Amino acid sequence: xxxxxxxxxxxxxxxxxxxxxxxxxxxxxxxxxxxxxxxxxxxxxxxxxxxxxxxxxxxxxxxxxxxxxxxxxxxxxxxxxxxxxxxxxxxxxxxxxxxxxxxxxxxxxxxxx
Length: 113
Known about the structure:
By secondary structure, the protein is mainly α. Helix content is 72%, strand content 8%. β2 (32-34) and β3 form a beta hairpin.
């Protein structure tokens, strides 16, 4: 399901069109651009809401917001990679999974020292 630019503005109270346009120009939000019309997915709407809340609730300026968004994107990317890794490990034979678990526990023990 896609959402139009105007619908995003309706769903995110207090958001101005010029501000949303600037977020798109800054590439903080990446809606599809078809026939000069922006179409937002639910994930885009969630990101718009997040940006709007961070600006409103924390008063983040553009530089700080760009840094926070970059860090969040890295966290989400790492979470995706971790899910892939967990799936790959989970598909291994039990002896391999046990060996990986033992290695992880050993590494954790050495970190605590």
